[in-house]
């Protein structure tokens, strides 16, 4: 068969997704083809053709505003869409779908027709979410180990220095050797922790930027809860959001690294009974995140150096945490890769507030 004779039905019959053409002016499908196994099983084709507007009722409540916005953009401005969202099916299950669509202006300029496909991506999405969940768990482990290992190692280092001053080591060669072993072991352990964190950050920077629609409030709540579980700490975390759920197209790994570094810095430079306030606000076309603390603040002379790699502005934390000097440079790089911007306000002795502004749509 010559390729010029291939019909839309021929194409749709071999596809593994629903193929459709929708007439905006008549609010009806002019073409609707689905394979034997499809995402809308249990819903008759006659029902879909007779009441196409009812399909929006299947969209998960959390995704409905986003889907309506995307459809309005293609209908009003001809902007093609390639989106992923969830359907809440009549059998009470949730399925992930990918919809790709565009206006047929080039071929039928006198009509307002949308041609598109609807693909079941549930298996792929669950696999991706599973992988990301594993990565998040690994990040949490690294975060806890970083803090919970650093603190006792720093304590041991300080204690050995006190012992060294108190003991007459020239008279006790054996004690001097033991103290040397303790100091060397502590230094090597801290260096190992820094190397692990540095490798993790560098690997994350080199990953391809992959923006997906991500719910940010729950992600922040999960990160903050880790700090609240740390023992022997009385620092108060407060999370304020403009909505219960806020979505944006971000790379989840990069967003997590940004927020983790900001939370970690606020935690390190705030006193034991300090206060850290995290705010996330949704605006028309962007989201604004701020992390404010009432800690030691940033001296004026250090402010221009904050985002430098291996910055000279690095300082040990309030509990003696050793700085690497990479954190804020990584944050700036990640924010730039997400096409956002970052800035801060700080007063020495009174605390700091870091702001991150990210585009909401891709």
Would you mind describing this structure in some detail?
- The chain folds into two domains: 118 residues, Beta-Lactamase, CATH 3.30.450; 234 residues, Heat Shock Protein 90 (2-Layer Sandwich).
- The chain has eight helices and twelve strands.
- The strands form three sheets. Strands 2-1-5-4-3 form a five-stranded antiparallel β-sheet, with helices on both faces. Strands 7-9-10-12-11 form a five-stranded mixed β-sheet, with helices on one face.
- A hairpin with a 4-residue loop joins strand 1 and strand 2.
- The radius of gyration is 27 Å and the shape is elongated.
- The N terminus is likely disordered.
Q: What is the typical, i.e. mean, pLDDT?
A: 78
SSE run: HEEHHEEEHHEHEEHEEHEE
pLDDT < 50 stretches: 1-6, 311-318, 320-325
What is the top-level CATH class of the largest domain? Alpha Beta
Give the proportion of residues in helices: 40-55%
What is the number of E strands?
12
Radius of gyration: 27 Å
Shape descriptor: elongated
Stated plainly, the CATH topology of the largest domain is called Heat Shock Protein 90
CATH homology superfamily name of the largest domain = Histidine kinase-like ATPase, C-terminal domain
**Distance between the terminal alpha carbons, to the nearest Å?**
40 Å
Strand fraction: 15-25%
Task: Tell me the strand order in the biggest sheet.
Answer: 2-1-5-4-3
Largest sheet: 5 strands, antiparallel
> Which architecture of the largest domain per CATH?
2-Layer Sandwich
Which structural class best describes the helix and strand composition? Answer: alpha+beta
């Amino acid at each position: 068969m010559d390729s010029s004779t291939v019909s839309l039905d021929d194409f749709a019959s071999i596809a593994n997704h629903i193929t459709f053409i929708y007439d905006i002016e008549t609010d009806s499908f002019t073409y609707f083809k689905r394979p034997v196994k499809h995402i809308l099983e249990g819903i008759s084709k006659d029902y879909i053709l007779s009441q196409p507007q009812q399909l929006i009722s299947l969209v998960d409540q959390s995704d409905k505003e986003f889907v309506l916005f995307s459809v309005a953009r293609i209908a009003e401005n001809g902007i093609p869409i390639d989106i992923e969202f969830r359907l809440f099916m009549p059998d009470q299950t949730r399925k992930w779908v990918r919809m790709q669509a565009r206006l047929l202006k080039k071929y039928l300029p006198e009509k307002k027709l949308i041609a598109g496909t609807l693909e079941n991506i549930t298996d792929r999405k669950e696999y991706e979410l599973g992988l990301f969940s594993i990565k998040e768990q690994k990040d949490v482990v690294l975060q806890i180990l970083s803090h919970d290992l650093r603190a006792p190692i720093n304590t041991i280092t300080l204690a050995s220095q006190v012992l060294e001053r108190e003991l007459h080591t020239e008279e006790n060669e054996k004690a001097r050797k033991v103290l040397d072993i303790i100091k060397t072991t502590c230094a090597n352990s801290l260096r190992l922790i820094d190397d692990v964190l540095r490798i993790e950050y560098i690997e994350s920077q080199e990953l391809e930027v992959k923006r997906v629609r991500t719910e940010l409030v729950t992600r922040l709540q999960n990160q903050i809860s880790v700090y609240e579980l740390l023992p022997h700490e009385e620092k108060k975390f407060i999370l304020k959001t403009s909505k219960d759920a806020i979505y944006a197209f971000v790379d989840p790994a990069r967003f997590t690294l940004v927020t983790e570094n900001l939370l970690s810095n606020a935690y390190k430079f705030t006193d034991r009974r300090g206060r850290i306030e995290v705010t996330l606000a949704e605006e028309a076309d962007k989201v604004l995140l701020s992390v404010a603390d009432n800690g030691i603040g940033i001296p004026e002379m250090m402010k221009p150096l904050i985002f430098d790699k291996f910055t000279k502005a690095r300082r040990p934390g309030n509990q003696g945490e050793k700085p690497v000097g990479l954190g804020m440079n990584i944050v700036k790089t990640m924010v730039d890769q997400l096409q956002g911007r970052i800035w801060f306000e700080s007063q020495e002795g009174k605390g700091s507030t870091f702001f991150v502004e990210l585009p909401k749509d891709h």
